[in-house]
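Query structure, 278 tokens:
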């Protein structure tokens, strides 16, 4: 129950029937909102019924992520032992400690510094890239495996998250000066936008994000998840991973980079796709 609205058997049956007929979750949400359902109640009903409707299909769908079956404190990532600092199930969030060494953080910053430019965002209207007022960082991309340092880190990530190295986009380095931020957004590509089919040709949907902190600001700059009231502090060498099994707000993966209040923040971001990214 949410806002006094009961998720009845009849509602579950209606949602199940509509999903089976091929209607999308966003279209069902819009219909429920038009009928007077509050956002929270509609999302709860859709999430519940979709999990039941998908059943075994969802439970067997391959997704990136660490092996947390035995609640480990540490995970062997091949060439480094990584700490598990925090986990959350919904949304699926894992905070890692000691993923990168201080030397690796400095080396990434040094290699990226001369190639920084105003950060762009993927433009789902056209399939290209564009400046976005919501994103006020400077950044650059390394090609996958561009140098030994990048290749080593990418291999470590692939081992840690049990996802093929080839399914990852190139490593992005971002610098946030005082006042810079990235307002809350989703990393998946909106299926309803006209440019999305063009974007998906390169490797399918994004299904996971890993944000690694290279340099700590003096104040501010946390990674926020507004839907669940979570903020991850940008401590050097640590990282936050989150996954999203479908491109829908019900995954609760709305996130942002809070404004840097003092100092600089540097991060490295790795986005993971459904298949090989070309």
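Result returned for the query:
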């Amino acid at each position: 129950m949410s806002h006094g609205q009961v998720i009845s058997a009849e509602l579950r049956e209606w949602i199940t029937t509509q999903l089976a007929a091929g209607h999308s979750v966003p279209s069902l949400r819009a219909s429920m909102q038009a009928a007077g359902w509050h956002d929270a109640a509609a999302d709860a009903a859709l999430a519940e019924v979709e999990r039941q409707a998908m059943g075994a299909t969802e439970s067997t769908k391959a997704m990136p992520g660490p092996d947390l079956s035995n609640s480990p404190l540490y995970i062997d990532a091949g060439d480094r032992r990584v700490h598990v600092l925090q986990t959350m199930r919904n949304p699926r969030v894992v905070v890692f400690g000691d993923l990168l060494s201080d030397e690796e953080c400095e080396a990434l910053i040094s290699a990226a510094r001369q190639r920084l430019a105003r950060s762009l965002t993927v433009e789902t209207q056209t399939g290209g890239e564009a400046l976005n007022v919501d994103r006020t960082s400077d950044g650059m991309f390394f090609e996958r495996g561009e140098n030994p340092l990048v290749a080593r880190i990418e291999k470590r990530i692939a081992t840690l998250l049990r996802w093929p190295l080839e399914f990852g986009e190139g490593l992005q380095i971002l610098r946030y000066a005082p006042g810079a931020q990235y307002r809350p957004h989703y990393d998946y590509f909106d299926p309803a936008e006209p440019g999305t089919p063009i974007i998906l040709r390169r490797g399918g949907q994004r299904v996971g994000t890993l944000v690694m902190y290279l340099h700590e600001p003096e104040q501010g700059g946390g990674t926020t998840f507004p839907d669940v009231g979570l903020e991850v502090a940008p401590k050097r060498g640590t990282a936050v991973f989150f996954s999203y099994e479908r491109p829908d707000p019900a995954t609760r993966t709305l996130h942002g980079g809070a404004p840097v209040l003092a100092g600089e923040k540097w991060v490295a971001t790795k986005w993971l796709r459904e298949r090989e990214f070309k």
